[in-house]
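Students often ask why inverse folding is considered easier than folding. One informal answer: many sequences map to the same fold, so there is more than one right answer. In these notes we will look at a single instance of the problem. The structure comes first.
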C-alpha cells in the first residue's frame, strides 16, 4: 500500500464525530483491529477502533453491511479472536479495512446508511473490556536496539559492551505466550532467586529490581510448515500489524539466572500488550528506511539483506513512557514522562527478525507475537527502561512528590503510548499499554 490508498486520505471525515477530534489515536485513517467483550456476555468479538468507539464486526456481518466480503472473511469477523483473519492473510484483512472505511465515512453511501444503524454497529470503548487480540501460540522477544544493547553491555561488560555477534544476527529469546495480558491487567511482582551480596549465597523472595521495557509487538499472519523458511523479500507478507508491548523484567533475578542460557523467571511472569493492532496499511505513510549502519559496521548477511527492506523497512513511530506512583494518583498529580524514543532507530527491521526466525526451519503461525526488544535511542531521554535511565539504580529518578525510583515500587502505574505523525498524513496512534504493580503474593 502507498499513500495513494484512498483510506489514507488526510481529508477523510467520519460520521463518528469523535473520530475527527484532533489528537485522537483512532481516526478513520487508522482502523486497527482488536477483540473486545461486553460486560453482559462471555463471548469475545472482533472489533475495529474508530474514535472513542468500536465497530462491532459480528453485528456488522449480521446486519448485512459486510455482504460484499467473501464468506471466509465474514466468518473470520465473527470469530472469538483475530487468528482466523490473520490466517487468511493481509490481502483479506485489507478488504475488511477498505469496507470499514467506506462504512464509517461521512460522505459515502455506505456511511450514510450505516449511520442510521449506529446503535447496532457501534459500542463505546468505555463500555467494553479489551482482550489480548489473538490466541498466541508462540512469543519471541528480540534485542533489536543497538543503543539498548550497548548501554546494558556497558553496565556488565564495560570493556566489551557489544558482543561480536550483535551486528550479524538478530538476537532473541523464546518468551512465555501464556502470560501475555492486555493493557490494564495488574502486574504482580514476581518472586525468584537473586544475589544481592556477591559474597553470600542467593536468596529467594520478591524481586527488588522490577522494570518495564518499552517495545513494539509484531503480530504475524499466515502459516508456514516446519522446515520452511521465509525469504527476506517476502517476510513483510507475514506481518499483520503492530501494537505496543511492555516486557516487564525483574532485573535482580535476571542478573543471577541468565547465565548461561538467558532469561527465565525474570521475564516469564508477565508481558503486557496494547489491545489494538495497527495494520501495515495504516502505517504506510510512516515507513522510513532501515537504520543507517555506521561506517565500518558489517552489511547484513545476504539472507537478511533486501533492497526494498533497506529502503522502507523502518517505522517512524514515536514512543513514550509515563509513570504515576500511588501517591501521585492520590494527590491528583499528572504522570511523569520518563522518556520519549523513536522506532526508526532500531538496528534490525521486523522483516529481518521474521526472516531470521524462520531461517532455521522454525514454523511461524497466525497469531504469533514478536517483541522488538527495548526501544532506546542515543541520548538519556530516549532510554526505554529504568535499568538504562537510572544506570542500574545508580542515578535514581525523582518524582514530583519527592519520591525516588531506581526500579518500580508497588502501586506504580506505567503507561506507554505510541503514535505516528507527519505533514500530509493523518496522525494515528496505538492506544495505551498500561499496568499497575501489585505486591508479590
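Output (designed amino acids):
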Amino acid at each position: 500500500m502507498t499513500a495513494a490508498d484512498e483510506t489514507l486520505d488526510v481529508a477523510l471525515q467520519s460520521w463518528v464525530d469523535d473520530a475527527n477530534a484532533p489528537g485522537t489515536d483512532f481516526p478513520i485513517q487508522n482502523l486497527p483491529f482488536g477483540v473486545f467483550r461486553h460486560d453482559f456476555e462471555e463471548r469475545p468479538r472482533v472489533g475495529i477502533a474508530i474514535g472513542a468507539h468500536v465497530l462491532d464486526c459480528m453485528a456488522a456481518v449480521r446486519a448485512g453491511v459486510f455482504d460484499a466480503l467473501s464468506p471466509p472473511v465474514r466468518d473470520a469477523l465473527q470469530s472469538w479472536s483475530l487468528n482466523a483473519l490473520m490466517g487468511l492473510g493481509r490481502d483479506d484483512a485489507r478488504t475488511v479495512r477498505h469496507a470499514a472505511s467506506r462504512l464509517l465515512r461521512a460522505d459515502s453511501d455506505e456511511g450514510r446508511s450505516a449511520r442510521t444503524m449506529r446503535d447496532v454497529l457501534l459500542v463505546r470503548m468505555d463500555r467494553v473490556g479489551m482482550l489480548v487480540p489473538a490466541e498466541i501460540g508462540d512469543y519471541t522477544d528480540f534485542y533489536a536496539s543497538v543503543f539498548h544493547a550497548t548501554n546494558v553491555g556497558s553496565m556488565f561488560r564495560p570493556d566489551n559492551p557489544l558482543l561480536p555477534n550483535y551486528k550479524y544476527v538478530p538476537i532473541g529469546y523464546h518468551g512465555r505466550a501464556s502470560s501475555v495480558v492486555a493493557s490494564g491487567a495488574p502486574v504482580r511482582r514476581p518472586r525468584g532467586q537473586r544475589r544481592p551480596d556477591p559474597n553470600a549465597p542467593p536468596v529467594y523472595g520478591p524481586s527488588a529490581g522490577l522494570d518495564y521495557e518499552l517495545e513494539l509487538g509484531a503480530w504475524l499472519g499466515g502459516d508456514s510448515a516446519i522446515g520452511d523458511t521465509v525469504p527476506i523479500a517476502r517476510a513483510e507478507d507475514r506481518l499483520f500489524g503492530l501494537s505496543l508491548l511492555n516486557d516487564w523484567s525483574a532485573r535482580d533475578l535476571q542478573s543471577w539466572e541468565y547465565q548461561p542460557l538467558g532469561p527465565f523467571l525474570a521475564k516469564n511472569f508477565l508481558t503486557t500488550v496494547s489491545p489494538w493492532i495497527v495494520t501495515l496499511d495504516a502505517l504506510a505513510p510512516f515507513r522510513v528506511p532501515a537504520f543507517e549502519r555506521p561506517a565500518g559496521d558489517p552489511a547484513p548477511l545476504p539472507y537478511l539483506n533486501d533492497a526494498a527492506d533497506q529502503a522502507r523497512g523502518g517505522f517512524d513511530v514515536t514512543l513514550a513512557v509515563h509513570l504515576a506512583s500511588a501517591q501521585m494518583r492520590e494527590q491528583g498529580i499528572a504522570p511523569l514522562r520518563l522518556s520519549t524514543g523513536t522506532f526508526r532507530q532500531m538496528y534490525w527491521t521486523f522483516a529481518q527478525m521474521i526472516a531470521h526466525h524462520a531461517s532455521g526451519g522454525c514454523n511461524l503461525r497466525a497469531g504469533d507475537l514478536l517483541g522488538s526488544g527495548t526501544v532506546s535511542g542515543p541520548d538519556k531521554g530516549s532510554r526505554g527502561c529504568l535499568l538504562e535511565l537510572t544506570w542500574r539504580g545508580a542515578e535514581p529518578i525523582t518524582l514530583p512528590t519527592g519520591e525516588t525510583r531506581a526500579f518500580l515500587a508497588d502501586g506504580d502505574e506505567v503507561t506507554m503510548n505510541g503514535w505516528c505523525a507527519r505533514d500530509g498524513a493523518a496522525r494515528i496512534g496505538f492506544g495505551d499499554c498500561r499496568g499497575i504493580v501489585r505486591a508479590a503474593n
